């Protein structure tokens, strides 16, 4: 019996499909492997704020201090945004049920977004209470991410952790992982909605102030001199 012959189009389609599937798997694996680095960098930059402030106090040049502070703020907040953006893979149901993800990964992403919301809505660099709240959110979120990752996914060779590995890996508990993901996704939606409403209210206040300022200046300029 002769084997079935493949047309050139079938061969090209098979190669394209293999490249697409292999590329997507490689991209997901790279993101999962790089997220611990981003989480660590996020914690280092956030908790390193006192060191940056002490360094600024020793800086004699005002321009240099401003550049150093603005660079630190952009790097700190930018790393947090990138970390949350890459953590969005924990909200993909097909990936959660088929790959070995930390089962509390969506909760960690939610707490990271909550810390970002605190930074956006409050001046954490001037408000010690806001800085403490964001610190607690980041530390708890990192713990929920590092714990299952280190003791579950990265410890598969340890037989005495087999029970823990099965409990904190998303592919071993797909139903629980999906429940955690949907609840966390609801929390993300609420936090994003709060941030949007807060930004809209701030924009409206700014527009009202700018529209009222010329009227005040005109009223002051039109006042008649007293005798």
Radius of gyration: 26 Å
Kindly report the average pLDDT value. 79
SSE succession: HHHHHHHH
Count all strands and give the number.
0
Q: What overall form do the CA principal axes indicate? A: globular
Q: Which percent band covers the strand fraction?
A: under 5%
- How many domains? The number is 1
Helix content: over 70%
pLDDT < 50 runs, ≥5 residues? 219-227
Structural class determined from secondary elements: mainly alpha
Q: In DSSP terms, counting alpha (H) and pi (I) runs of 4 or more, how many helices? A: 8
- The N- to C-terminal Cα distance equals 117 Å
Q: In this structure, how is the largest beta sheet organized?
A: none
Q: What does the secondary structure layout of this molecule look like, with pairings?
A:
Blueprint: H1 8-47, H2 49-58, H3 62-86, H4 93-98, H5 105-121, H6 128-153, H7 162-168, H8 174-221
Explain what the structure shows.
The protein is an all-alpha fold and 227 residues long. The chain has one domain. Helix content is 79%, strand content 0%.
Summarize the structure.
With about 230 residues, the chain is mainly alpha-helical.
Kindly list the characteristics that best describe this protein.
globular; disordered C terminus; 227 residues; mainly alpha; 8 helices
């Amino acid at each position: 019996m002769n084997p079935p012959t493949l047309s050139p189009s079938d061969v090209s389609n098979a190669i394209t499909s293999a490249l697409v599937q292999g590329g997507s798997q490689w991209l997901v694996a790279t993101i999962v492997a790089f997220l611990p680095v981003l989480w660590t960098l996020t914690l280092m930059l956030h908790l390193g704020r006192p060191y940056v402030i002490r360094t600024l106090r020793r800086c004699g040049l005002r321009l240099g201090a401003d550049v150093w502070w603005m660079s630190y703020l952009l790097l700190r907040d930018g790393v947090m945004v990138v970390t949350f953006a890459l953590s969005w893979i924990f909200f993909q149901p097909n990936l959660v049920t088929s790959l070995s993800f930390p089962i509390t990964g969506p909760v960690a992403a939610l707490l990271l977004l909550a810390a970002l919301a605190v930074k956006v809505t409050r001046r954490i660099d001037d408000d010690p209470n806001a800085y403490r709240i964001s610190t607690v959110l980041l530390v708890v979120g990192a713990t929920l991410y590092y714990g299952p990752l280190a003791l579950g996914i990265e410890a598969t060779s340890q037989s005495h952790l087999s029970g823990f590995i099965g409990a904190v890996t998303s592919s071993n508990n797909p139903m629980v992982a999906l429940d955690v993901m949907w609840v966390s996704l609801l929390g993300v939606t609420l936090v994003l909605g709060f941030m949007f409403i807060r930004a809209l209210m701030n924009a409206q206040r700014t527009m009202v102030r700018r529209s009222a300022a010329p009227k005040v200046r005109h009223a002051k300029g039109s006042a008649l001199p007293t005798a």
